[in-house]
Design goal:
The structure is a single chain. 53% of the residues lie in helices and 1% in strands. The chain is globular. It has 3 domains: 86 residues, no CATH class; 152 residues, Orthogonal Bundle (Helicase, Ruva Protein, domain 3); 79 residues, no CATH class. A two-stranded antiparallel ribbon has the order 1-2. The protein is mainly alpha-helical. It has 16 helices and 2 strands.
Length: 356
């Protein structure tokens, strides 16, 4: 049993030469933090998870690092809390197979994927020419020659190849103070996941900073495919997960195999209001379920604009000034203040909507 106030830093070893790394503010608190024992008791004999009870404990004291990965799989919607142990195992195997297919597809185009290596130099230019960068992996030039010798490359392939070196540049900078990433295999695993994701999600592709979001998945989930799916779900639910948690979230992600499954699955699923996050609870209390409610993002934007309204009115002399002021906000927002303001605006909106 861990003692009250035990720091969690020991679970993420820092390289000895990195002496200026800030200490974690999270402390493991006995009786409040979700422990492995409490996590196990939250499941029924069949494997159904009491998500409401689990969320309540997480809100009080967080999650113990030893179980954080498997808990996140539920919080991010990888698995339905109402599923059984057997159902989850079957789904896990299907997803691992699907990830292996995608990875093999990427490897056929660019064999560095899945090879235990990664790249940081451009693979190809806009003109479909190979990189002449001396730091490129030795085999890269041959790979590019092979690709271009088959004729003009598909637009999707070109776009994907153009992102691979950017992924590599970000990967080598990600959590570099941690001992975990001294192992090149872990860097390669992170690069592979981001490369595969960029291949399958052409709308998002890869954006700088995604490596930082994916990194915890690599550290907490041993299987690469499991880490990929956790990251994929995180990307879907990036916007304000905690405020609008819905116990039916899993149904938004996974289509049932048949209409009968849907009909059967919808029976007897009485929703407890305590299972929802603050945003959804307000919607339910005020009868906003009759039509699709406005997303929390609308109120977040309104909250930020309201907070900066004085600056916009006094300093903006045209559209260019407005754009500049809004750009300056990026990275300087107080998330807690913005969320609090969004909830206040949401409450006012619901009151007015109820009157009309």
């Amino acid at each position: 049993m861990w003692s009250t106030g035990e720091p969690a830093d020991s679970y993420y070893a820092v390289r000895p030469e990195c002496t200026d790394v800030p200490k974690s503010r999270f402390k493991i608190r006995a009786g409040k933090t979700l422990s492995a024992r409490k996590w196990q008791t939250a499941f029924s004999p069949e494997g159904h998870l009491d998500i409401g009870k689990t969320l309540s404990r997480i809100q009080r004291g967080g999650i113990h690092p030893s179980i954080r990965g498997e808990v996140w799989e539920f919080l991010l919607g990888c698995y339905d809390p109402r599923s059984t142990f057997d159902e989850r195992e079957q789904m896990r195997q299907r997803r691992r197979t699907q990830y292996a297919r995608w990875k093999e597809e990427c490897s056929e185009i660019f064999p560095v994927v899945g090879s235990g290596r990664y790249i940081t130099a451009p693979v190809i230019t806009e003109d479909d020419a190979g990189s002449s960068d001396a730091d490129a992996i030795a085999a890269t030039s041959e790979i590019v020659k092979e690709l271009t010798s088959r004729g003009p490359l598909d637009k999707k392939v070109i776009q994907w190849l153009l992102t691979l070196h950017q992924i590599g540049l970000d990967v080598v900078r990600t959590d570099r103070t941690l001992v975990f990433y001294e192992n090149k295999e872990n860097l390669s695993k992170l690069w592979d996941i981001l490369a595969v994701y960029a291949w399958i999600d052409t709308d998002v592709g890869y954006c700088q900073g995604m490596s930082d979001l994916c990194s915890p998945m690599i550290m907490l989930l041993e299987d690469e495919a499991d880490a990929f799916w956790c990251f994929e779900r995180l990307m879907r639910r990036l916007m304000m997960w905690a405020l609008e948690y819905d116990p039916d979230l899993f149904d938004m992600y996974e289509e049932s195999d048949s209409a009968s499954d849907k009909a059967e699955g919808s029976k007897g699923r009485a929703k407890s209001i305590r299972h929802y996050g603050k945003f959804e609870r307000e919607n339910m209390k005020n009868g906003a379920g009759t039509e699709a409610p406005l997303p929390i993002s609308v109120f977040l934007v309104a909250s930020v604009l309201k907070d900066k309204s004085a600056k916009l009115l006094t300093e903006a002399r045209g559209l260019d000034d407005v754009v500049k002021i809004l750009n300056d906000m990026t990275g300087n927002l107080d998330a807690k203040k913005a969320c609090s303001g969004a909830m206040k605006l949401h409450k006012k909106y619901l009151k007015k909507a109820k009157k009309t």
